[in-house]
Amino acid sequence: MNQVLTISCKLKPSETQAQKLEVTLHSFAEACNWVNQNTPAKVMNSVKLQSLVYYEVRNRFNLSSNLAQQVCRRVAANRKTAKQKNRPVKAFKATSAGYDARIFSFFEKDWSVSLTLIGGRERMPLDIGNYQRGMLKGSKPTGATLVKRTNGDYYLQICWEQETPDPLVNPNVLGVDLGRTDIAVTSEGEKHANQNINRVRENHAKLRRSLQKRASKGTRSSRRRCRQILQRLSGRERRFAAWVNHTVSHRIVKRAKQSGESVALEELTGIRERTNQQPRSSTERRRSNSWSFYQLRQFIDYKARRDGVQVILIPPAYTSKTCHVCNYLGDRQGKGFKCGNCGWHGDADYNGAVNIAKWGAAVNQPEGSRLFCSLDRDDAGLLKARAPYA
Q1: Where are the alpha helices (DSSP H) in the chain?
Q2: What mean pLDDT comes out for the span 91-120?
Q3: How does pLDDT run across 65-76, given as a tens digit for each residue?
Q4: For the chain, what is the largest distance between any 2 Cα atoms, rounded to a whole number of angstroms?
Q5: Mean of the per-residue pLDDT values for the chain?
Q6: pTM, rounded to two decimals
Q7: Out of 46, 48, 110, 238, which residue is the most buried by the measure of CB atoms under 10 Å away?
Q8: Which helix (H) or strand (E) holds 384?
């Protein structure tokens, strides 16, 4: 099994090369906008787009053959994404351009790259550290994306394929319950969150409310300044969440690999749409929607593939409301859980993580899960659960 990895590397172009990079990015963006505006919107196949506009793109925007093909691929991909989200295609900006192996080369000998730009091929060094060197050593990149950041620096997102081991099917499973207060709680009782994370999140929310209020009032210059700060704050929040998710996913996968376990997670696809339909306050809605759990799941997934750890997805229904001791439905209030049958009480997220681990282990047991409790009727004719079968 192969896995595509991407690493961000800073370029060190000369002044002349920086000008060529800027011209190339602007021509690439203008070509994308022209193709999007002058072709039928229903055409989402890159090959068909190429047959319609290939020669015109090359002549009009002075792009090389492969860059013209990359333009068609970029427009086709954006149209497909816009259709899935039921939105129009946004205007393309001069911030990135795609490259494949024919117009991009990586040289490990002197840690440099060669790119096809408008005006010819240019070779420029990489400004990278030991982490990037270790990742790129011995690799054979298959493509890259040229990116210009807001501070004016140029980066290259280098992609390559890496062979990963087949995931081992283990009878032991590490259950992970994702939550709002604690980002992740494992079935071993380890909590991957602390008060500092919640404090940072609440501070960002408070600052954002204050800036939004000021952005709606005051002078024109003060409103513009508030909008600029809000945009910068958005990037800071996004980077903070990505850093926390990277750290949490690394620790979870490392623990599972060391103990020879699989990782079981809840399948939370569509959870926001379902929970947002319920009546809640704006504060509760913000706290539930402000963290990227899907990103955390993606990080766990690709790190687990790299290390040969199996990932199992479990339906989330009743995972934290079912007692992990006797399989009865208990009473959950916030972070607390209490079982009315056996009397067990404790952290609801830990209880859910243990259930996720048990149900994840059942997937790898061909004889069946054996996780159920039988039902009979009491004197009033109501259903009553008995102790679960072992």
Answers
A1: 15-37, 46-61, 65-84, 130-136, 195-215, 220-259, 271-276, 282-289, 293-307, 348-363
A2: 94
A3: 999 999 999 999
A4: 88
A5: 83
A6: 0.72
A7: 46
A8: strand 383-385
